[in-house]
Amino acid sequence: MGSSGKFFVGGNWKSNGTKESVKKLVQDLNFAQIPSDIDVIVAPTYVHLPYVVENIKDRFQVSAQNCWVGKAGAYTGEIAPEQLKDLDVPWVILGHSERRSLLKESNEFVGDKTANALAHGLKVIACIGETLEQRESGQMYNVLEGQLSGIADRIADWDNVVVAYEPVWAIGTGKVATPDQAQEVHAFIRKWLADKVSPNVSSAIRIIYGGSVNDKNAAELAGKEDVDGFLVGGASLQAQSFATICNANAKVAV
Ligand SMILES: O=C(CO)COP(=O)(O)O
């Protein structure tokens, strides 16, 4: 079916950047040709957030890459949702596979963080995805269901959620999912949401793809019915590549 919402492109800068390189990227993005009818989000590191919020054009929305599971307080090294709101950061990425695998974030913890972020008025890009081993051993759908349930069990309102399907084997590997592979999983996610949450949520929610998206493969992926946008890592660090990806929406109304 595809989402009834706007095409959505997020740039996840991960743990990249210096003061100088972030300044240059923001300048280049401010000059880039981005279509007006899509949502575009950039997610710098915590330390670069204030600079980006203040210097990037309003046409871009800014996201953090993580946040704490509760209120601000005695949680050394953590940043709470109300602190992101205070900085005028409207979005947060949660459940990225790099955090699930390297920092052992569980489905339940990601669900709790999603609920807490939404309760504090943040919008959430919730990431799910299987490893190659899970895919090849026939566990893919179970894994995805577990990740979706971790969230669905804890939130009632999905209006401010975008689901990012990011197969772990495609992240940073140059091995992008084929358009058919992406479509198959996105359709599964949409059906799961229709069955377990509601048909309205299923038809409104944006399901975006991440994993080795670049300026060459984006248009073909975007042509798939249930691919409502992208979460881009490496290619989002180059303004020109990112702008090309932002222009890849082949489903614009004619
Ligand atoms: O993890 C990703 C976005 O969150 C994808 O990273 P790459 O685009 O570098 O593969």
Please explain how this structure is put together.
This protein is of the alpha/beta class and 254 residues long. The protein has one domain: Aldolase class I (TIM Barrel, Alpha-Beta Barrel). Helix content is 39%, strand content 15%. It is built from 11 helices and 8 strands. An 8-stranded parallel β-barrel has the order 1-2-3-4-5-6-7-8, surrounded by 5 helices. Helix 1 packs across helix 11 (239-246), helix 5 packs parallel to helix 7 and helix 7 packs across helix 8. The longest helix is centred in the last third of the chain and has 18 residues, at 179-196. The model has no long low-confidence stretch (mean pLDDT 96).
Task: Indicate the topology.
Elements: E1 8-12, H1 19-31, E2 39-43, H2 49-55, E3 61-64, H3 81-86, E4 91-94, H4 97-102, H5 107-119, E5 123-128, H6 132-136, H7 140-152, E6 161-165, H8 179-196, H9 199-204, E7 207-210, H10 218-222, E8 229-232, H11 239-246
Parallel strand pairs: 1-2, 1-8, 2-3, 3-4, 4-5, 5-6, 6-7, 7-8
Helix pairs in contact: 1-11, 5-7, 7-8
The structure holds 1,3-dihydroxyacetonephosphate.
